[in-house]
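I hope you will forgive my troubling you with a question about protein structure. I set the record out below, with my sincere thanks for your time.
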Amino acid sequence: MEQAAHTPAFFGLVLIFVSAAFTDNILLTRFLGMCSCLGVSKKVDTSVGLGVAVIFVTACTAAINYLIYKYLLLPFGLDYLRLITFIIVIAAFTQLVEMIIDRYSPALYNALGIFLPLITVNCAILGISIFMLGKPYGFIQTFFYGAGGGFGWFVAITLIGGIREKINEQALPGGLAGSPITLIIIGIMALAFIGFSGMVKV
């Protein structure tokens, strides 16, 4: 009986995760985090590395920002400070991720370059924390929503990186190489992901 009672709650968390990752993909339906995507998605390895870092940052910062907003900013009437507060939390976690990657994977750290510290100003991560405010979620639900949003960004940038690796951009007309062909790829993929819209509503 206890297991049956817990099943609907767990299923709800899975739906939140899937909805944030696919039906409400932060990159391909909201078009946030484009600058990092354009800069890092040249190879699968760097795409995966940055994508994993983004999952960690979005999951943790969405949950922490939820606690700060609900139990500190709202009770004291400081909700107008939410943007600067969210950015500070994201910046702190980005610094933590940067130190971890630098310590355990110097090659990935060097490959990501300037785009790793730029997670701080990645509008996708800030966007997830802001969108969280309009959801009727508790702490655990917010964590899954943040993790799902980060996973959706990870899937999108990894797929784009794989496609770009297969494309010989040097053989393309000069006006299409680099960012233009990447934007075309993103547009085509966005059409597919927008097809998920409305399938899961939580």
Residues 168-202 form one domain.
